[in-house]
């Protein structure tokens, strides 16, 4: 039997190693795993970029609103204007859907337009707020502009919301919050349609638009 040349054997061994590493790091399931820590945050976001995105204003705390639940004490910057938002206080008194996403997440791009349509259908019955779980605010605003998604959103550069609710390091994740600030459900998957969002919210929060 003819012996395989040494150079060929080494090439085959290297190829097997590369394939094994690729399989090991490939994301599982319907979401995408978060990239490693980024050294630098994005540059200052221009007023022109915020204006082009045309995002809705972030919710603000009602007078006397009580901040309770796992999101209490967490303040994030609003993507629409850069102003800080006391998250738990701003959401108090009404059910909410927080959608955790990032510009590099493919399933998030598919889901965001459905969330926009759901929010329009639901009206004032529920607060729908996007949470960009990455420091790159300018890139997030550019993508939202391209998608024609104008939902209110906040910037969560250190993914603190995800940690607070105990969600895994994948995206997208949707957090269903009761009016009292407690968490009804952490949905670790991409919603497949507007009806899927409506059915899930109705089952977990009792809100049916």
UniProtKB/TrEMBL annotation:
Any one GO molecular function term: isomerase activity
Main location: other
Pfam families listed in its UniProt record: Redoxin (PF08534)
Domain Thioredoxin as annotated: residue spans: 56-206
Keywords: Cytochrome c-type biogenesis, Disulfide bond, Isomerase, Redox-active center, Signal-anchor, Transmembrane
Organism: Nocardia goodfellowii
CDD domains: TlpA_like_family
Protein name, as recorded: Thiol-disulfide isomerase/thioredoxin
PROSITE patterns in UniProt: THIOREDOXIN_1, THIOREDOXIN_2
Subcellular location field: Cell envelope
């Amino acid at each position: 039997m003819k012996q395989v040349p040494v150079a060929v054997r080494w090439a085959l061994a290297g190829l097997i190693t590369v394939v094994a590493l690729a399989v090991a790091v490939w994301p599982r399931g319907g979401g995408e795993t978060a990239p490693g820590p980024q050294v630098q945050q994005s540059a200052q976001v221009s007023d022109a970029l915020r204006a082009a995105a045309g995002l809705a204003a972030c919710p603000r705390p009602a007078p006397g609103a009580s901040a309770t639940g796992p999101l209490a004490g967490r303040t994030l910057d609003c993507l629409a204007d850069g102003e800080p938002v006391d998250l738990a206080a701003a959401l108090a008194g009404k059910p909410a859907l927080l959608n955790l996403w990032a510009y590099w997440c493919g399933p998030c791009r598919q889901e965001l337009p459905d969330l926009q349509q759901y929010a329009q259908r639901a009206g004032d019955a529920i607060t729908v707020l996007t949470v960009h779980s990455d420091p790159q605010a300018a890139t997030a605003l550019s993508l939202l502009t391209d998608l024609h998604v104008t939902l209110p959103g906040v910037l969560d550069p250190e993914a603190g919301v995800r940690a607070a609710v105990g969600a895994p390091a994948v995206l997208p994740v949707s957090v269903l919050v009761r009016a009292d600030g407690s968490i009804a459900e952490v949905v670790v998957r991409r919603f497949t349609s507007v009806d899927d969002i409506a059915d899930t919210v109705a089952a977990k929060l009792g809100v049916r638009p």
